[in-house]
Design brief:
It contains seven helices and eleven strands. With about 250 residues, the chain is an alpha/beta fold. It has one domain: Stationary-phase Survival Protein Sure Homolog, Chain: A. A nine-stranded mixed beta sheet has the order 3-4-2-1-5-6-7-11-8, with helices on both faces. A two-stranded antiparallel sheet has the order 9-10. The longest helix has 17 residues. The N and C termini lie far apart (about 55 Å).
C-alpha cells in the first residue's frame, strides 16, 4: 500500500513523525507536508506565487519525503500530481496538535488536506489529538493506526473521507470508539485588546472550546468523555432540500 502522509503543523512536527512510524506497518509511507506550520488555513491553495519544494531526509539518512512552501491542500495536490510515482492508495493527515472537532473542522488545515485527497477519489483520513499540556504522540499514533486499519478493513468506497479525534492521554486509555456527527456549537469567540511597545493597538484571539456535555452526542461531547471519535465527512455543501424551493422563485 502506498500512503501519502501530510499535516498542517509542518514537516518536522512530532505528531507526523510518530504517525509515520506506525503507518509503516501498513505500507510504504511518503511524506509531503508544509515547510512551516499552517494551522487554521482551511482549504487555501497557492495561486499567485511559486511553491518551493525540497526533499527531506529522515534521521537515519533515508528519504522521508518533501516539504512544500505552501498549504496542506497544496502539499496533497503536489504529492498526487507531481511528486509520487503513482497516486497513493491512502492519504492520512496528522497527527494534529489539538483536536479538530465541531466547527473547527471548517477551519482546519489538517482536515482540508484530507478533503483534497478525497477530491482525487482517494480514501483520506484526518487525525487530531486533543489539546493537552503534554502530547503523547507515540501513544496516540498507536490508537490512530488501529482506527485506520478498521476503516480500511471495511473497504470504504474510493474517495471516502473521515475525521478522527483522539482524547488526550491525560484522560487515561480511550473508553472506546464512537461514530458521531460534528458538533455545531459556536466556540467562545473573543479578542483581547492589547498595545505593543510602540503604542499601537492589536488584538489577540482568545480560545474557549465548547467542551460541555449538554445536548446531542457529537464529536465534541464524546471526545470530552474520553472516546475516540470518527466522523464520516463529505465536501458537497449543496443544501439539496432547498433546490426546488429556491429554483421556484421568480428570477426574471
Amino acid at each position: 500500500m502506498q500512503i501519502l502522509l501530510t499535516n498542517d503543523d509542518g514537516v518536522f512536527a512530532p505528531g507526523l513523525r510518530a504517525l509515520r512510524k506506525e503507518l509503516l506497518r501498513l505500507g510504504e509511507v511518503t511524506v509531503v507536508a508544509p515547510a512551516m506550520e499552517q494551522s487554521g488555513v482551511g482549504h487555501s491553495i497557492t495561486l499567485l506565487s511559486p511553491m518551493v519544494v525540497k526533499q527531506v531526509d529522515d534521521d537515519d539518512g533515508t528519504t522521508l519525503g518533501w516539504m512544500v512552501e505552501g498549504s496542506p491542500a497544496d502539499s496533497v495536490k503536489l504529492g498526487i500530481c507531481e511528486l509520487l510515482p503513482r497516486p497513493p492508495d491512502l492519504i492520512v493527515s496528522g497527527i494534529n496538535s489539538g483536536s479538530n472537532a465541531g466547527i473547527n473542522v471548517l477551519y482546519s488545515g489538517t482536515v482540508a488536506a484530507a478533503i483534497e485527497g478525497a477530491f482525487f477519489k482517494i480514501t483520506s483520513i484526518a487525525v487530531s489529538l486533543e489539546l493537552s499540556e503534554h502530547f503523547d504522540y507515540r501513544h496516540a499514533a498507536v490508537h490512530a493506526v488501529r482506527v485506520i486499519e478498521k476503516i480500511l478493513a471495511n473497504r470504504p468506497p474510493n474517495g471516502s473521507l473521515y475525521n478522527v479525534n483522539l482524547p488526550a492521554h491525560s484522560r487515561g486509555e480511550p473508553r472506546g470508539v464512537r461514530v458521531v456527527p460534528m458538533g455545531l456549537g459556536r466556540y467562545g469567540e473573543g479578542f483581547e485588546r492589547r498595545q505593543d511597545p510602540r503604542g499601537r493597538t492589536y488584538y489577540w484571539m482568545t480560545y474557549d472550546p465548547p467542551y460541555h456535555l449538554e445536548g446531542p452526542e457529537t464529536d465534541v461531547t464524546s471526545l470530552c468523555e474520553g472516546y475516540i471519535t470518527v466522523t464520516p465527512l463529505h465536501f458537497d455543501l449543496t443544501k439539496y432540500d432547498e433546490i426546488r424551493q429556491v429554483a421556484a422563485w421568480k428570477w426574471d
